[in-house]
Specification:
By secondary structure, this protein is α+β, with helices and mostly antiparallel strands. The chain is built from five helices and nine strands.
Amino acid sequence: MKKDRRMGDFGMGTAFQPLQEVRAYWEGLRSGSEPPARASLDPRGMERSLENVFLIERVAHGVARFRLAGMHLVQLLGMEVRGMPLTALFEPAARDQVMEATEAVFASPSILTLALAGDRGLGRPAIEARMLLLPVMGDTGSCDRALGCLVTLGLIGRSPRRFSVTREVSEPLQPQVWPAVAIERAALSARQPDPARELAEAQRPFLLQPKRSAGRGHLRLVKSDE
C-alpha cells in the first residue's frame, strides 16, 4: 500500500467521473478552507452520481457509520448498509488503516482518496475501485460527517465484495484551487433553492432509494425520520 499527499491524476480518469462531479459540487459549497455544512448538501446537485454517493457520521475515534448510501454500495455488500460501519466494505487486514485515515478526514480536516482492490474467489471476479471522502460540518458545528463517493470497475459477481487498500492520498484542506469550470458546472447542475424544501431537509435527513421504471433505473429521494 502506498501513501501519498499528491493527487495528480489519481482517481481522475474518465471511468471515475462521479468522483470528479461529487468533489466539484462539494468544492462549490465550501468557504475558504472550511468544509461545507451538512444542511447545505442537496442531492439534486449530485444527481448524475447519486447511486455512488454516501454520507457517513463519526461516532467514535476512527469509527464512522453510514447515514445514507446509494444503491451501488447496497449491491456491493448485498444488503442495506445504513447504520453499518464504513469498515464493513473492507477486508479485516485493511480496517485499522481505513479507521486511521477516516479519523484524519474529520480531525484535520482533510480530503481522502483511496485506490481499492476487491477480494477474489468463487463468484468474485477481479474488481478495482476508488473511494473519495470529503469532510462536512455536522449540526453541532463540528466536523463529524463526510460526503463519500465509491466507484468500481469490473463485475460485482455473485458474492458480497470487500476491498483492500492499494494506495492512499490525503490532502489537508486549503483555500479552493479546484478549477473554476468544474465549480461552475456543479453550480449549473443544481436547481434554484426552494425555501420550504430547505426547511424540511434541515429537519429530516434524506435517503437514497431506487425508483423502478420501464426505462433506465434511477434514484428518487425518500424522507425518513430518525
